User: Fold these one by one.
Assistant:
Number 1:
Amino acid sequence: MTFLFFFGSIKQLMSQKISNSLIKEIIELGEADLSLSLNDCSDKLGVKGSTISTWQRNLKSGKWTAGYEKTEDGEPLAENLVEKFKKSFAFSRSSSKILRRLVTKKCLNNRSCFAKQHKILKRLFKKYPSVPFWLHVDFGDPRDDILLFIGKAEFQLKKKYIDFNAVDEYTPFTYNYTKEDKPKKDKLPKTIWDFYKK
């Protein structure tokens, strides 16, 4: 009986192998909630966060490629799933860069203030889910608190988001000019001699 217990605990310690079905579940969770962190995803799936992080690192570095066959189900990894999996958890990877742009250093150095600002940013990211928007739009000088964006300044944030994601659609104008051969006009008589010449 102790052998079975020992064997069960060893099995839990062994890392889980990657598979197309697990990657697909991770992608679906990420598409449902773009602000999903790696830890939240691992809690929902029952897989260690370090395991998912290792999979992503190996796929990004090229150690594993699409078609990797040492999977749980024995099927090679699908290329489209691998590409989507590499791009997942974009918010988690760039949240600290975003916060450095929005919040003062004084607040970033305080652990409780940083946690509060991260929570607010995650809430804002659910409304405005675009990492390039948060990384490139000018929000002015860093503030002590970004709670302002949820209240009074939300209309400005919404306007900036719409402007950033606007796509210019226009019909290109094509100029097709063909020179026509016009018949020569007769000169109008200007002098008396012009009348005699006719």
Note: Confidence is low (pLDDT under 50) at residues 1-14.
Number 2:
Amino acid sequence: MAKERHMDPAKVRAMGQSLETMSNILKVVSTVLEVQMTILKTTAFIGMFGGLALERYIAQIKPRIDELAKQTAELSQDAILSAADWEKAQLAG
């Protein structure tokens, strides 16, 4: 006997919205890191070489933050669309 599958579209949609919020937060973090990198490059130019090392470290982290923001945005859309498709299928019978 086949197991019945069930989805709570409201919970899936809420999960999608949470992922969207996380994506937006990660985008803000990425922007802040970009500003910090610019400041550190400027201070390195005027003689504070520790700032350059820190900028290089941040430059290694930023692409990962950008990728996480992209992935969470994609997961958000997938969850929201999945909930909508489930509801359509349930109405269609």
Note: DSSP finds two helices and no strands in the chain.
Number 3:
Amino acid sequence: MDEQPGRDSATEPSLIDEMRELGQAFSALGKTAFKGGRVLSVELLRSIRAIVDRAREEIDRIAEKK
């Protein structure tokens, strides 16, 4: 068969797709924040960092539930 040992064929395509989508979301975030090479204010960068920190905390909470 085509299956490799240690792989769950029922969930892996979904996991791979989600990881790819997450990477694309991070890329889009960077492009949005720094598009056109514009210079951002320190205040705006702090706001963006705070949003990312809150997202990380939420991810930690979700991971603890599983």
Note: The mean pLDDT is 81.
